[in-house]
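Dear colleagues,

As part of the handover before I leave the project, I'm documenting each prediction I ran so the next person doesn't have to rerun anything. This entry is a single chain, and its sequence is reproduced below.
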Amino acid sequence: MSTVVAASILINAGVDPIVQIASRNRNRLALISDLIGAAALGVTSLLLVRGHHAPKEFKPRPKPVLDVNAAELIRIASTVNQGLGISHSPDFYIGGLVLAHRPKKSWNGKLLADKIDAGAGYLQTHICMDIEVLKTFMKRLVDNGIVRRTSIIGATAILGSAEDARWLRENRRNVLIPDSVVDRLEQASDPRQEGINICTEILHAMLDIPGISGANIMAAQDLATIPETIDAAGLPQ
């Protein structure tokens, strides 16, 4: 489903959505159309990304457009934010994605800086369930001052089974799920509950990482596990 259409359904239900728009398979005119449409619906928050390859089993294979990259899409949204003479001037809070990793000494965070310069008010990590990697990455962002320029949101997932974890690792190359997480799900008598337990532990660990401003919790399939995890972690909703 179109994310803008999904946003309309959520807004009508009284939910304030964060709308994700990907540049991979649309040209800039189509992207501008989506942005203006989102503004007309009353969308206030955006997550602008390059987008993923379609899963391997998706046939026939779609051809990517790649007219603009993620930083350029953020800049386009920032320009739309300025009005462009349209009757309803949007007030988007714009964000982008960042890959948590162990930076080399030579890493200067240019891709992050480009997104911030383009207008990103926050950057959300891809799903990272390796806390040691996240700690190392965030330390570099604190040391080089990036966290003073934008907010960093850590993303994690509630996995319902080892199969869910393997699918994500095979089809979403920027997702970090360590073998230890897969093993716990494989060995658990109740994988659903174990997925909630793992996510709760990660959320607690994030609270102690300097520079992280919040968390995004995603569920592989069972959305009901999200409020359950928030309750289990003792987090405010």
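The chain has nine helices and six strands. Strands lie at 18-22, 45-49, 93-98, 122-127, 151-158, 212-219.

All the best with the project,
I.
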